[in-house]
UniProtKB/TrEMBL annotation:
This is Histidine kinase. Keywords: Kinase, Membrane, Transferase, Transmembrane, Transmembrane helix. GO terms for cellular component: membrane. The chain crosses the membrane at residues 12-29, 41-59, 71-90, 113-134. Coiled coil: none annotated. Pfam families: His_kinase (PF06580). Residues 153-230 form the Signal transduction histidine kinase internal region domain. InterPro entries: Bact_2-comp_sensor_kinase (IPR050640), HATPase_C_sf (IPR036890), Sig_transdc_His_kin_internal (IPR010559). Gene3D superfamilies: Histidine kinase-like ATPase, C-terminal domain. GO terms for molecular function: phosphorelay sensor kinase activity. It comes from the Bacteria.
Length: 344
């Protein structure tokens, strides 16, 4: 369908060019009721042939392949030979006062050849410009398409990294419950199954309803509360209307996961405050945790956060603000996403 529309647009553009070129040529003649010069129609046929020969063959074979000198030589040769042949076989016979009473050069003078060369050359140059623009537009469309596919592939790669990373940490949580022989182990497995269902069926989409992402966060927090010895200072506050809003899946979870990972002190107390504020134009997430027992960072410990940073750059270029504050006692992340036009 798009190709048909593009073809129709190109046809309209070409017709418009010919109407403009020859409307300007014939209007003064017809307006003054003057006779049309005898060489106009043969010249029109030659112009059309040169126009499309240049458009479909000379420009693609030489100019687009960076053979500029060859293109110029061939083009000048075509124009000169065409002008000579036209003036040889179709010597123009102009009516009186056709050139505003200027003296006309006849016979083997230079002026008729010069006029023919210019009248052939202008449409010829227009055909080259038009073909160059069409090729540039086509290459730009292709470049944007490839760039979009690359971004999509990179996002899928980032999600593929994030999902096993999250699953590994969640299994550690359930393992800790089972070691303590906690009665909450079965509930944790049910919560994990809900999380896995979301990751399997929703995480590969570009956008998911915000309410589903919130449900996922709630399930994750509930799973974390089961393993904590003291979750009194764990809170989630959500304000605003989430209906009709959409976000990339798993966008917020790494910040929250990181807070639970480092927000437990040596006494087993956990302080994690999560605020999600939804407005008409933005979604704001604030995650704050006290820095508990220091853990030596491992090679893979930063995969989740780094992936989210990369996703934000790819999905929301210029449409997000991410601030991270670490004063040694508290770690705070503030993320604002300015909503795109698309929603669910």
């Amino acid at each position: 369908m798009k190709s048909i529309i593009k073809n129709k647009i190109q046809i309209v553009v070409h017709i418009s060019i010919w109407i403009l070129l020859y409307g300007l040529t014939f209007y003064p003649i017809l307006n003054d009721a003057r006779p049309i010069p005898s060489d106009v129609f043969p010249k029109l046929i030659v112009i059309i042939v040169l126009f499309y020969f240049n458009y479909f063959y000379v420009v693609p074979e030489y100019l687009l392949k960076k053979s500029v000198l060859s293109y110029l030589i061939i083009s000048l040769g075509l124009l000169i030979v065409s002008a000579l042949l036209l003036n040889h076989f179709y010597e123009p016979k102009f009516p009186e006062n056709f050139f505003m009473d200027r003296e006309r050069t006849r016979g083997f003078g230079v002026m008729p050849y010069y006029r023919s060369f210019v009248s052939l050359g202008i449409p010829y140059v227009i055909s080259a410009i038009l073909r160059m623009y069409v090729e540039w537009k086509r290459n730009e469309t292709l470049r944007l398409s490839v760039e979009k596919e690359n971004i999509k592939s990179e996002l899928q790669f980032l999600k593929a990294q994030l999902n096993p990373h999250f699953l590994f940490n969640t299994l550690n949580t359930i393992y800790a419950l089972s070691v303590k022989k906690s009665p909450d182990t079965s509930e944790a497995i049910v919560d994990l199954s809900e999380l896995m269902r979301y990751m399997i069926y929703e995480a590969d989409k570009d956008l998911v309803p915000l309410n589903k992402e919130i449900d996922y966060i709630k399930s994750y927090i509930q799973l974390q509360r089961l393993r904590l010895s003291d979750s009194e200072n764990v809170s989630l506050k959500i304000t605003g209307e989430d209906r009709g809003r959409a976000v990339p899946p798993l966008l917020f979870i790494s910040f929250i996961e990181n807070a639970f990972k480092y927000g437990t002190d040596y006494k087993g107390k956990t302080y994690v405050k999560i605020t999600l504020t939804i407005t008409d134009v933005s979604v704001y997430l604030n995650v704050k945790n006290k820095i508990g027992v220091f853990r030596e960072p491992t090679k893979n410990s930063g995969i989740g956060l780094e992936n989210i940073r990369n996703q934000l750059k790819l999905i929301y270029p210029g449409l997000h603000d991410l601030e991270v504050d670490n004063d040694g006692k508290n770690y705070e992340v503030s993320l604002t996403i300015y909503q795109k036009q698309s929603s669910l």
